[in-house]
């Protein structure tokens, strides 16, 4: 069974959703038969790759005050606490396109989930600039990628098309917020669902489509920043 997950590095509920999803996978007896593919999504592709956005101006445009954002962080930290995840103040609001390219590169090495995890932590906990190439290369090394290859990739147009293709794919299937999970291109799960929900939904999907087949032959962040 193939599960595609659209996610953005700057989406806090994508971080929580990843944790809940992976916890659920450990409780599913068919986990070894499930293929996970991480797909790129950008909540704000208009952000600069070189100049971080001013927090107050940015959230004013989204209709939030800094006080509301701080209150949201309290809720997020409550959700992240069971996983040891910390959401700090002062995240660097920057374009995540190159971070997605690193994830795409990592996916070719079987390290996409590890890359997602490292970049979430870098953005939300460590307040790192996830558009800075040297920072991205350091993160790449931490997860087992080659620094020189990573920098060469970042200084080229490698995976630019892949990121854009994922974003277009999301638009074509009606994704308006992330995280968004698509199972075998038949079923969709939206948002940072509880572990129990993931377990139930994914188990039912597998048993409905794959066990039957084998017997025969053998909350989200949206593009406007809402709910973040």
UniProtKB/TrEMBL annotation:
Entry-linked CDD domains: DsbA_FrnE
| Single GO MF descriptor | oxidoreductase activity
Among InterPro entries, the record links this protein to: DSBA-like_thioredoxin_dom (IPR001853), Thioredoxin-like_sf (IPR036249)
Q: Which domain of life is it from?
A: Bacteria
Where does the record place the DSBA-like thioredoxin domain? 3-202
The identity of this protein, by name, is DsbA family oxidoreductase
């Amino acid at each position: 069974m193939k599960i595609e997950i659209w996610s953005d590095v700057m989406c806090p509920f994508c971080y929580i959703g990843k944790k809940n999803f992976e916890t659920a996978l450990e409780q599913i007896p068919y986990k070894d038969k499930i293929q996970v593919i991480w797909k790129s999504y950008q909540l704000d592709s208009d952000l600069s790759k070189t100049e971080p956005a001013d927090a107050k101006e940015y959230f004013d445009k989204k209709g939030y005050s800094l006080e509301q954002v701080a209150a949201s962080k309290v809720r997020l930290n409550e959700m992240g606490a069971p996983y040891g995840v910390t959401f700090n103040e002062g995240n660097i609001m920057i374009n995540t396109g190159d971070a997605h390219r690193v994830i795409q590169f990592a996916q070719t090495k079987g390290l996409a989930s590890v890359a997602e995890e490292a970049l979430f932590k870098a953005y939300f906990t460590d307040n790192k600039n996830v558009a800075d190439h040297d920072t991205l290369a350091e993160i790449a090394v931490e997860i087992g990628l080659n620094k020189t290859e990573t920098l060469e990739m970042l200084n080229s147009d490698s995976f630019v098309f892949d990121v854009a293709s994922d974003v277009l794919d999301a638009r074509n299937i009606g994704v308006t917020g992330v995280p968004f999970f698509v199972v075998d291109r038949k079923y969709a799960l939206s948002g940072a669902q509880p572990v129990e929900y993931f377990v139930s939904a994914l188990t039912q999907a597998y048993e409905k489509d794959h066990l039957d087949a084998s017997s025969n032959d053998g909350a989200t962040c949206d593009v406007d920043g809402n709910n973040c």
